[in-house]
Amino acid sequence: MTVLASGSKGNATVIAAGSTTILVDAGMSCKELLRRMAQVGEDPGTLNAILITHEHLDHVAGLSVLARRLKIPVFFTEQTHRAWVRMMTPRTTMSYTKWLELMQREKEVRAEQTAAACAPQEEIGDSGDQGMEAVSVEPLSDSAASLEADATAPKVKADPAFLPAVEYFRAGHGFSIGEIDINPFTIPHDAADPCGFVFHARPESIRMAIATDLGYVPPNVKMALKHVDVLLLESNHDLEMLKDGPYPWSVKQRVLSRVGHLSNAAAAEFLLHDYDGGAHTIVLGHLSESNNLPELARLAAEQAIGDRMSLLGNRVVLATQDVPMDPICL
Ligand SMILES: [Zn+2]
Ligand SMILES: [Zn+2]
Predict the structure, then answer these.
(1) Span from the CA of 278 to the centroid of ligand 2 (angstroms)
(2) Nearest ligand atom owner, CA of 190
(3) Domain span at residue 83?
(4) What is the number of structural domains in the chain?
(5) Do both 190 and 71 map to the same domain?
(6) 227 vs 10: CA distance, rounded Å
(7) Same domain for 197 and 306?
(8) Is this prediction's pTM over 0.85?
């Protein structure tokens, strides 16, 4: 497991086993993702697929460009894919005045068409085309308009949501990519259908898990995180720092909610009471830059793990936003 970035400005992690390499989330520009992969010695050419946890920008910012560049499939849940497509498809909102104008123009076009009904054939065609343009070009972007014009045409690259291939998975239903078995599990977070993952590297019989972007740790997540060798766990904020911090009250409430982010205290609570103590390494991730300090996150986790921490197991490391972490190789 190599965490390329973790935090609210971008998330991406490489999971590799045997001849299979998967990128989990692509939350930075394609250029930056490729730069970071080069930095840690990962060849982008070996990536087999991209797997998406949820559609928030810090997890998908470079997705379309990277997937197109590498021509590899993207795995989503269907709801996450739909939410992402909606997000990628530009929409313009129309003011009431503009809507009235549009209605007026449509009315004029219809009147012209009726008037032209007695005229020679060519003229009907002309006015018809103008009518179509007047109606459809205005509210839609070029790409959306061209798709609308011919829905059966192969999706062109101008479509911002175009991907070389899309595969769907469902939370609770395992699937495989090459030599890696993947178990997606539902996490409580304010996205369409957010998931965490457990990866089972068949050749080495190693299990790695990613559980970030969750408001709390529900029973299904506790179950999923049993018997893992490497655990990337969210330790987003220090409660006091968040309360006194710079965020507006509404954002504070969102972060603190049951569908927000996991605090240092909640991560520690999980490690103390629910974690089975069997991991080689625990990676703390998605740390807030405004509402947390690496030392506080580490301290909370290390206190919770207590004397279960040793040279051979339960090593605590921190993933950061700015630089890729050293690969964890088992
Ligand atoms: Zn996130
Ligand atoms: Zn999120």
Answers:
(1) 27
(2) 2
(3) 2-88+161-318
(4) 2
(5) yes
(6) 28
(7) yes
(8) no
